[in-house]
Amino acid sequence: MSDDTTGDDTTGTGAPAENKPHQFERLPATADDRDVPERATREGVVEFWQDRYGVDPSVWEGYTFWEKGAGKVWAFADDLPSPVEVEALGMTFLRTGGEHWKPTTDAVQRFGRYATADDTVIDLSREQATRFLAGEDQELDWDGDWGYLIVRHEYGGESVTGAAPDRADSGRPEPIGVGLFLHGELRSQVPKGRRRDL
Amino acid sequence: MPMTDGIDDPGDVLGRYEPLVDDVEAFREACARPLPAVVRVNEIKATPDEVRAGFEEEGIAYESVDWHDGLLRLPDGDPGHSWAYVHGWVYGQEEVSAVPALVLDPQPGERVFDPCAAPGSKTTQLAALMEDTGLLVANDSNLGRLSALRSNAERCGVSNVVVTKSDARNFSLKPFSEGDEDEPFDRVLVDVPCSCEGTIRKNPDALADWTLDHVQGVAGVQKGILERAIEMTKPGGTVVYSTCTFAPEENEAVLDHALANSACDLVEFDLPLESRPGVTEWDGETYDPAVERARRIYPHHNDTGGFFCAKLEVTA
């Protein structure tokens, strides 16, 4: 399993000849439709989010998925003729290839709210969340799954002045990023450029 | 002629605009007063209520902006280091710069173009107004600025944006069209590079290197960008032209050129801020009377930066 903390790097090196690294190609619908071997499929991507994180497939109804560089999948809210040569198409979304696929920080922050699984979504205390955001690894009691987890904390709910009356109960769990849980330790996968000391 | 204390304006550029403003002293005084930090709530990720609650939780002081629920003034400065920022719930943006996207009023599912997009404050606002659906093409010509645009769009969770790098004056619709026929945009936000005089309250050296040559040079670029934007918009579609300069050469003169050479009309629109009509005479030139439908926003009327905004309807 990769322990790559540069996580969201999409510059792409070492792509095989079948992949043209400067252009985006829409993922084939299913394995039967693909002409580049090993390439992820739309079906596979939707299944991954459902099986691992409990994201309902309806979330992706308007979306198309694209590859730029081997294994680097982008999610786009619309569609375009494929292939297309542009700087960015929607957002960096998922690293496929290898045994364990890895969502990006952008994807988890944007779509993590639709995750309903309880063994791959972990809620941290504020103190733990602060360490996670700073890029620190931490020992953690966790009975859920190992591998890449969606890491959240409660934020934005405890209105002191009553300025936000409909949210006075508690914060909503807000995703921060991806953590790799292995051997009792949560390893922060927040990319270097996104880490903060709060 | 009086210069303005507190700002670096060796050529007295502000003095140039005295004939245009109603209260010269108030205008100069406002230009010399720094602006408070302002953030816009990124409604792709959070509501204004959630952001207010988050700020309170983090002990970040804020004040509401009366004309827009999604803008918050921060008397203690920009919270770059805050959970609100980390989560992409807010974007630092001067309040007057939130105006043109509201005037463009893009709808969910539409095809929208932002030819001069970096660093992305207006792009991310457009995406939120479109509810992160449809097609938003965000272009810039400069690679360094594009990287800022991309990182801002990513932090805001924008997924309907396509980022391109090209000269907006000869932008190609080909990648965005099925078949041989170019598919036009519904709306375009032409927020052009300009001499930026209106940002003097944020950038005290904005006028330090001002030259008329630069104004005239950039006006040529502006005309080219607006002309191409109108060409790429469908009949009945909307183009908004905006700058942060007071210079009529970069504002009304550019509109006058478009009215004479492109298939468009200027249309009236409402603004939630106090504003003045476009000017029809400047420096010996006269402009099409329709340029009065454009709006000038001066710093002393709403205690904001300076801004210029016009709404055009494409006619063919």
Average pLDDT across residues of chain B?
95
Total helix count of chain A? 3
Question: How many DSSP H or I helices of chain B?
Answer: 10
Tally the beta strands of chain B: 15
* Topology pattern of chain A, helix = H, strand = E: EHEEEEEHEHEEEE
Number of strands of chain A: 11
The end-to-end distance of chain A, rounded to whole angstroms, is 30 Å
Q: Which secondary-structure class do the elements of chain A indicate?
A: alpha+beta
Strand content of chain A: 25-35%
List the keywords.
heterodimer, A: about 200 residues, alpha+beta, five-stranded antiparallel sheet, five-stranded mixed sheet, 3 helices, 11 strands, about 15% helix, elongated, B: alpha/beta, 15 strands
Helices and strands in order:
The complex is a heterodimer of chains A (198) and B (316).
Chain A: E1 25-26, H1 42-53, E2 64-67, E3 72-76, E4 88-89, E5 91-95, E6 102-103, H2 105-111, E7 121-124, H3 126-133, E8 138-139, E9 147-155, E10 172-182, E11 185-188
Parallel strand pairs in A: 7-9
Antiparallel strand pairs in A: 1-2, 2-3, 3-5, 5-6, 8-11, 9-10, 10-11
Chain B: H1 13-16, H2 24-32, E1 37-41, H3 48-58, E2 63-65, E3 68-74, H4 83-86, E4 90-92, H5 99-104, E5 111-114, H6 121-129, E6 135-140, H7 143-155, E7 161-165, E8 185-191, H8 212-231, E9 233-243, H9 252-261, E10 264-267, E11 276-277, E12 281-282, E13 285-286, E14 295-297, H10 299-302, E15 307-314
Parallel strand pairs in B: 5-6, 5-8, 6-7, 8-9
Antiparallel strand pairs in B: 1-3, 1-4, 2-3, 9-15, 10-15, 11-14, 12-13, 14-15
Helix pairs in contact in B: 8-9
